[in-house]
Write a structure and sequence with these properties.
Blueprint: H1 10-23, H2 38-55, H3 60-67, H4 70-73, H5 78-102, H6 112-122, H7 126-150, H8 154-182, H9 187-218, H10 223-246
Helix pairs in contact: 1-5, 2-5, 2-9, 5-8, 6-7, 7-8, 7-9, 7-10, 8-10, 9-10
């Protein structure tokens, strides 16, 4: 992997990455006529509704908190990259929403779980806001894998593959921000942040399984498999955050 220091700004790479994704034409098979069958619809419709709602955010609060981070804002690419990142999340919501509309499944306007996460982010500064977002993205990876495998819909499977590719990159992007935010801290404070993040992850993972167990089981995914995949993604994220917080030259 090319070092982030090979360019003047560590966020320039991400600005270009998100801008490229924005400019890429959608190659999803929207013309595929196969609808969900009744069993598939029962297994996945509520989960898609809830994730479609959760993926959508105007991002105004996140940008406001980010703008208060003077050190990060000294990088001229930081806020532009963040804006494109928010746009990519909104495109995920748009894709899922369009799929719901095609299947005549109503979109949700609110859900208690989404509301809880939004309230948590509103109470937080940039670090906790980013921690909350990236925890959801870590768990989105096993979820979208299961959703991909839970039906035979070519369109839904293609949407899931597209989102999975984006979410995998988001872990690296979020690790950069969290690592830079934590870099000025002493090691004991970093360790405490890591422990608290782990607690949030484990609690949210259990909640996610309870909420969307039907999707995982329809995909043939056991709890053990879900837990293993989720923990593997979280371990990757935690390792990347630590690397950045100590020395971003170790991102080679």
């Amino acid at each position: 992997m090319t070092s982030l220091l090979s360019i003047a700004s560590p966020y320039e790479r991400w600005y270009r990455h998100f801008r490229h994704g924005c400019d890429q034409p959608s190659d999803l098979p929207w013309n595929d006529a196969r609808p969900l069958n009744p069993a598939e619809r029962l297994a996945v419709s509520k989960a898609i509704q809830q994730f479609q709602l959760g993926e959508w955010a105007r991002g105004r609060g996140l940008v406001r908190r980010a703008s208060a981070q003077l050190e990060l804002c000294s990088d001229p690419w930081f806020l532009p990259a963040l804006e494109f990142f928010i746009g990519e999340e909104q495109r995920h919501s748009d894709m899922l929403g369009r799929f719901l509309d095609r299947e005549h499944i109503p979109r949700l306007t609110s859900h208690w779980l989404d509301g809880a996460f939004r309230r948590l982010r509103k109470l937080a500064g940039l670090e906790l806001c980013a921690v909350t977002l990236v925890t959801a993205e870590v768990l989105a990876i096993p979820f979208y894998r299961a959703l991909r495998d839970a039906t035979r819909s070519p369109l839904l499977r293609a949407i899931c593959v597209r989102i999975l590719c984006d979410e995998a990159a988001h872990l690296d992007y979020q690790a950069l921000t969290l690592g830079l935010v934590r870099r000025p801290l002493r090691e004991p404070a970093r360790a405490i942040r890591s422990v608290l993040h782990s607690a949030l992850f484990y609690g949210t993972a259990l909640l996610l399984w309870g909420q969307y167990r039907r999707v995982f089981l329809a995909a043939g995914c056991t709890f053990q498999r879900f837990w293993t995949e989720a923990c593997r993604s979280f371990a990757f994220l935690d390792r990347r955050i630590r690397q950045v917080s100590f020395d971003d030259r170790r991102l080679d």
